[in-house]
Every structure is written in C-alpha cells, then in structure tokens.
Design brief:
This protein is an alpha+beta fold and 196 residues long. The protein is built from three helices and eight strands; from the N terminus they run ααββββββαββ. The termini are far apart.
C-alpha cells in the first residue's frame, strides 16, 4: 500500500519546505589564542590603556588643527635703546621691546626676565612684571626702564668717551606668556648699541 506524500514531508525525508541545519562538522570553530596572546581577552584588557591614551592624543591634535590652535611662539625683539639720564652715579636707559603674536588667539605677557652685559661683563638684570595683552596677529611695543649704577656706569661712560665709538649691549632674557592652550615660554637674545 502506498503512503501518502504528506507523510514523508512531515518527517522531513524529502520535499521538506525548510532547509535542514548543516551538520556539526561543517561549522567553523571559534579562534582560540593562548592566554598571553595580544588578541586574547586578557591581552586586549592590557592594551586598553594604551589604546585610550593614543586615541586621546590623536583627538587633541586633530582638534587643535581644526580650530587653528597650531601654536607658534611669539617674537620678542629689542627695537631701540635710548639714554634717558647720565651722571657719575647712574646711567638710565629706556629700552623698547616689540612683542609680536603670530597666533589666531590672544596672549598675555605675564613677566619678562632679562640680563645685560657689556664686553662680557654683567651690568644689569631685572624682572618686568607689568602684564601686557597682545591680541591675535598683533604687534606691541613695551618700554622697560633700565639703570646701570656706580662702578658699571663709570666703565660704560669711560668706553664711550675715550674710545669714541658705540658700546654694544648684549641682552638675554625669557618672556612668559599665558595662552588658551597653556603657558608659553620664549627665550630671546639680542644686541643693540648705545652712544652719547
């Protein structure tokens, strides 16, 4: 006696409407790594701080470049030196420095440290603490009063009067700035001549 077609279909012998799952031997086994391997779970956990740190550095760099915060150091240059007063006890000078901000953000000059020497002899040093705001792409001039006293005054005057030629003043200093991306330190050196 022939069995109806529906009987074999219900048992899934042939003509089944849904595909049968593949045998177990056809399934690809999951990758297995030794415990100390970098791709093992324990290895990935160890790499997590490095990945986060690298991502933060790259993110800050991209952000700075996007916002135009590729900072350049400001320029500090001595423009001129003028003798304001001279006598046997003191030589007063007026020093004009230019401060140029090449950045797209404002800077504030907080203080400026300097030392002056003539023919390798230190004659003056000091700190200028008057804050100065320098806007983006702006150039400003500041005036620093400088006094050379007693023995150093006689030395300078003697060379000016008897050698009859300008005396070179060698300047070295450090300017400290505040900026939106943190402190900026600029070291500078320059030379200007003075004469009576």
């Amino acid at each position: 006696m022939r069995k109806p077609l529906g009987a074999n279909r219900e048992r899934g012998v042939w003509g089944a409407s849904e595909a049968s799952p593949p045998p177990d031997f056809l399934e690809e086994p999951a990758a297995q790594f030794p415990p100390n391997h970098l791709l093992a779970p324990s290895g990935l956990i160890k790499l997590l701080p490095v990945i986060l740190f690298t991502s933060s550095i790259l993110g800050c760099t991209i952000l700075k470049e996007t916002l135009g915060f590729v900072a350049q150091k400001p320029k500090v240059v001595i423009e001129s030196i003028r003798i304001a007063k001279v006598d046997l006890k003191e030589l007063k000078l007026e020093v004009h420095l230019s401060v140029e901000n090449p950045n797209a953000f404002d800077l504030v000059l907080s203080d400026l440290h300097y030392s002056v020497n003539i023919h390798d002899s230190d004659v003056a040093s000091g700190i200028h603490k008057d804050e100065l705001k320098v806007a983006a792409y702006e150039k400003k001039t500041i005036e620093i009063p400088l006094s050379i006293q007693t023995q150093n005054t006689l030395q300078v005057l003697g060379r000016i009067l008897f050698e009859r030629k300008p005396i070179p003043l060698h300047w070295q200093g450090q300017a400290n700035f505040h900026s939106p991306i943190g402190p900026m330190i600029v070291k500078f050196s320059d030379q200007k001549e003075i004469t009576l």
